[in-house]
Amino acid sequence: MKVDDLIAKYNLPTPRYTSYPPANYFHERFTEEDFRKTIAASNQLSPEHLSFYIHIPFCPQLCYYCGCNSYPMEKKNVVEAYMNAVKAEIRTVLPLLDKKRKIAQIHYGGGTPTAIPLHFLKEINEMLLSTFGCIDKPEIAIECHPGYLTAKHWLELVEAGFNRCSIGVQDFNETVLKIANRRPSLLPLEEIIELLRTNDISINMDFIYGLPGQTVESFSQTISRAVELKPDRLVTFSYAHVPWINKNQLILEKAGLPKTEDKSKMYSHTVETMGSHGYVPIGLDHFVLPNDSLNIALRNGMLHRNFQGYCTRETTGQVYAFGVTAISQLSAAYSQNTRSIPQYIAAVNQGLSPS
Ligand SMILES: C[S@@+](CC[C@H](N)C(=O)[O-])C[C@H]1O[C@@H](n2cnc3c(N)ncnc32)[C@H](O)[C@@H]1O
Ligand code: SF4
């Protein structure tokens, strides 16, 4: 079959590949009691490390393309109630875990975790890190929207103990960002990279191809600029158009999505540019420098993927997740929390599991 025919055949929306079975196949019959038993059992199962995921759902402005579990920024008191509930949820789970196990990963995702006052994240890091030991070089990672972060904010993230920042660039082309209702980076990326590198922070950058306003030429320019910046990891997500989940995406449909052939060329040009600048592909959409732990793991048969993304067999753990929509990934079962912020806060405040 010709490449164009293959693309036409498989160019269909499918569930995201982050888990098997995917989250839309999870069912409601898994009770609170089942969850507690599964957590207790996870203490005896491998992988032996602890991996914590904290979901911060709020965003100052919603990007029209967004396929994440994001909600408009709430008033100060709601953010505070939400974060108190997250801390309370963590407090109910920590006593169930084997204190001899070590933290391999702490990951804050969203939404936009960098949009809330940083002391909340600092407090959670302290709660976790004062309860358990860590493996050598644990990953303490956060997804960052650069549109709102000053140099002071970036330095505060370093001081809060983060050692990996995932920067959501999406595109350098300001017209593309404008159509998508997204703020460009407040600081030049060069300045952010310099600041993070000086402080020994690993840098990921996220891009999306397939957005309105992008052309094969314009996206090539974006990727050429990205590789010049030399982040440790580059991720180029294929835009997932799922307007039945996020109605805002209909605005982008109206603005005009690139043709399938063009989207496919954006990807193949990306692969070429990455390769010619020394980046190695990991899976469908990640590119890393050759000395990156993911590439070393790929070569040694130790590459892995959990709900926090690609990782190595050494850094993966049982994933205990907190906050709305967060998915715990234990060896014996997956369990997802409720999507509703008020329901989540109410359940945790009543001492119930928010799943
Ligand atoms: C939770 S966001 C990152 C943190 C922060 N909210 C930001 O936007 O910078 C995770 C990443 O998912 C990607 N993403 C969001 N919606 C997407 C979609 N519909 N299709 C493909 N990738 C998407 C973006 O690249 C984004 O950086
Ligand atoms: S891409 Fe990031 S900032 Fe934009 S709406 Fe989604 S989670 Fe929020």
Which series of helices and strands comes N to C? HHEEEHEHEHEHHEHEHHEEHEEEEEH
Give the helix/strand class.
Answer: alpha/beta
Largest sheet: 9 strands, mixed
Proportion in helices: 25-40%
Extract low-pLDDT stretches. none
As a whole number of angstroms, the C-alpha radius of gyration is 20 Å
What's the helix count? 12
Taken from the alpha-carbon principal axes, the silhouette is globular
The small-molecule ligands in this entry are:
S-adenosylmethionine, iron/sulfur cluster
CATH level 1 class label: Alpha Beta
Q: Termini, distance in Å?
A: 45 Å
Shape-level CATH architecture: Alpha-Beta Horseshoe
CATH level-4 homologous superfamily: tm_1862 like domain
How much of the sequence is in beta strands?
A: 15-25%
> What's the β-strand tally?
15
As for the number of domains, it is 1
Write the CATH fold name.
pyruvate-formate lyase- activating enzyme
Structural account:
There is one protein chain. This protein has 355 residues and is of the alpha/beta class. The chain has one domain: tm_1862 like domain (pyruvate-formate lyase- activating enzyme, Alpha-Beta Horseshoe), CATH 3.80.30. 37% of the residues lie in helices and 22% in strands. The chain has twelve helices and 15 strands. It has helices at residues 3-10, 32-42, 76-93, 118-131, 151-159, 174-179, 189-198, 216-229, 249-255, 260-276, 293-299, 341-349; strands spanning 50-56, 58-59, 71-72, 102-110, 133-144, 164-170, 202-209, 233-238, 280-282, 286-288, 303-306, 309-312, 318-322, 327-329, 334-336. The strands form four sheets. It has a nine-stranded mixed β-sheet, sandwiched between helices. A hairpin with a 4-residue loop joins strand 14 and strand 15 (334-336). The longest helix is centred in the N-terminal third of the chain and has 18 residues, at 76-93. It binds S-adenosylmethionine and iron/sulfur cluster. The site of S-adenosylmethionine has 18 residues, from strand 4, strand 6 and strand 7. InterPro entries: Coprogen_oxidase_HemN (IPR004558), Coproporphyrinogen-III_oxidase (IPR034505), Elp3/MiaA/NifB-like_rSAM (IPR006638), rSAM (IPR007197), rSAM_horseshoe (IPR023404), rSAM_sf (IPR058240).
